[in-house]
Queue: 2 jobs
Job 1
Amino acid sequence: MKLLLAIVNNDDSARAAAALTEHGIFVTKLSTTGGFLMVGNTTLLIGTEDEKVNEVKEILKTHCTTRKSAPSPTESLGRGLKHGSLPAEVKVGGATVFVLDVLDTIKI
Ligand code: 2BA
């Protein structure tokens, strides 16, 4: 059993979660915030059998697109960063996926 933590764009999250569900894969959506841009994103919590991990990755690839994002000029303020020190534009994945081993799962 594996646990995948997939950090995705808010705009892709509903389609990705729906596609996972259609394939019989269980998913939980968490509202999260990226530490760099400080804007909202979504973390999908996906517990699945080892043999389904590649299928999950393919589904995420299909539904999660890469975007360019421009941090607002004031985003550096309040974080101890020099004003305007953030890059003008960053490429935001797709999806950032962590795959973890699960020792045990119980549903009570
Ligand atoms: P954010 O932290 O808001 O980062 C948004 C984008 O800014 C990143 O896109 C990357 O292109 C850039 N970025 C982030 N940290 C940076 C840094 N220290 N220096 C220069 N550029 C930086 P992605 O790499 O696609 O990440 C998208 C979101 O996925 C991130 O949002 C964060 O919420 C999460 N994430 C990515 N890698 C992570 C990691 N190793 N651990 C935890 N969360 C991660």
Note: The longest strand covers residues 40-48.
Job 2
Amino acid sequence: MRVLVTGGAGFIGSAVSRHFIADLEHEVVIVDKLTYAGNLASLAPVASRDGYVFERHDICDVAAIDAIFAKYQPDAVVHLAAESHVDRSISGSDVFVTTNVMGTFTLLEAARRYLASSRKAADFRFIHVSTDEVYGSLGDDGLFTETTPYDPSSPYSATKAASDHLAKAWQRTYGLPVIVSNCSNNYGPYHFPEKLIPLIILNALDRMPLPVYGDGSNVRDWLHVEDHARALGLILVKGRPGETYNIGGRNERKNIDVVRQICSWMDNFRPINHSHHDLVSFVTDRPGHDRRYAIDASKLESELGWRARETFETGIEKTVRWYLDNADWWKPLRDKVYSGERLGLVKA
Ligand code: NAD
């Protein structure tokens, strides 16, 4: 299968590209603009393999995207390109609307034009990769299912919700074979250091304060990125057009407990003359901070036979070790792109 992967130089897109090429032997054509979050070093493990193509383009560039479809004649699109950081969406939402909404619209229209003139129409798939944040916040009980009403809180999740609606409308109105996936918070290797887990690991390594928003009791449902990549590989071949699949690993954790677990691994792997727990620092909460996310993934499990392989305990240990062993990957980012400063406070 030849798959067009947008955002393939990002955190999840690179895991998907590595998995599709190395494990599933798909051909992968990556389209990525290489924003601050895109990094070709994340593709190094597969860049010299057969079946790897990289094209640097903006998904909003209609002519470039039409040309990519015409040149490569893909069997499927897995659309991950997006602005993805909630804090950045609070202080600068424009690029989120442009990339997440207009970029998705551009791809859906390009796919429609391509299928109108292609022999691939019967088996083509367009997987639109989204987030559980479109459902808003849960109270202490309950889980997000595929029928939970949308109620996004942040500019990021509002633009992802808008793009999900476009993708579903293109399926219903034009018959484009779209599948939407909504996944919980990912973690794992090659994660850009602005996100909670890599930020805490790298600050701990530098003996800097470990910022925890509010009282740390907000709950996220963590999924190892390679489990997400495996789920998307299955959805690509077994998912039904017009359907939505929630993806999550049943790993709900309070933010403070995630931070404490990382501190304990750092005490273990890199002991210093005091505990890393002493570095925890509670800071002003994120505006509009959703209280709790939790995914019911039983549809994906029962219909497609997917199971998460990593528990949070196995995955977080591997992730801490990966950062300790891979300074070559993150050091240029910490030095030149993002050094740990607070993002996303509302300006007057
Ligand atoms: P990321 O920020 O790490 O990567 C995004 C990639 O998209 C980067 O390589 C960037 O260069 C590229 N990109 C951005 N704007 C572009 C444009 N206009 N044209 C072409 N390429 C562009 O994001 P991620 O965490 O890997 O997330 C990937 C997708 O998965 C996103 O759609 C996100 O909403 C979704 N998602 C993320 C999570 C999570 O926990 N990270 C959870 C569920 C869903």
Note: The pocket of nicotinamide-adenine-dinucleotide is lined by residues 7, 9-13, 32-35, 37-38, 58-60, 80-84, 99, 103, 129-131, 160, 183, 185-186, 192 (CB under 6 Å).
